[in-house]
Amino acid sequence: MDNKITIIEGPTPTFEAVNSEWVSGISESPEYYDVVMTNLRTMNGAGLLERCYQTWNQQDTMYLHYRNTIGLEQEIPILAARLVETDEGEKIALWVRVKPEQIKQEVHFDEDEE
User: Fold this and answer.
1) Would you give the distance in Å from CA 105 to the centre of its chain?
2) Torsion, Cα of 83, 72, 34, 84 (10° steps)
3) Which helix (H) or strand (E) holds 9?
4) Residue 105 to residue 107: CA distance in whole angstroms
5) Which pTM does this prediction carry?
6) What gap in Å lies between CA 36 and CA 23, rounded to an integer?
7) Which pLDDT belongs to residue 103?
8) Domains, the chain, ranges and CATH?
9) Would you say which domain of life the source belongs to (predicted)?
10) Comparing C-alpha atoms, which of 22, 46, 41 is closest to residue 95?
């Protein structure tokens, strides 16, 4: 269980597209994947980061485990993590690898755009 970050309470995480060059370097694979990012509130961010580092040092995969919007359990690999201090408290930023059909991304257009 040390190779999972499990969301026990709260809403399904929201994922944002990532457009950084370094992301393509860590996400190479024979299959096509997208890399997306999510920010999660945490009570023990340092402990979560330490678990990630230990898992990666053992050449193993760390997973984000959560329930999607219809209640099905999902596990997706975590590629990178960073602890962020905000006015609201600690958050952990996670970059995860997903197949395009796993994540529904909402696109919002300004009212002026057609």
Assistant:
1) 14
2) -10
3) none
4) 6
5) 0.79
6) 9
7) 60
8) 4-98 (2.40.30)
9) Bacteria
10) 22
Tell me which residue has tokens 């919002």: 108
* Structure token pair of residue 99: 């197949």
Tell me how long the chain is. 114
pLDDT in tens, 39-65: 999 989 999 999 999 999 999 999 999
- Is the separation of the CB atoms in 98 and 15 below 8 Å? yes
Alpha helix (H) residue ranges in the chain: 21-26, 45-57
Instruction: Report the distance separating Cα 83 and Cα 81, nearest Å.
Output: 7
> Would you give the DSSP letter of residue 11?
S
Residue with tokens 């796993």: 102
Q: What are phi and psi of 27, to 5 degrees?
A: -115, 15
Query: Which DSSP state fits 2?
Result: T
Q: Per-residue pLDDT for the chain (114 aa), expressed as one digit of tens each?
A: 589 999 988 888 988 888 766 666 565 665 667 889 999 999 899 999 999 999 999 999 999 999 988 888 999 999 999 999 999 889 999 999 887 666 654 433 445 544
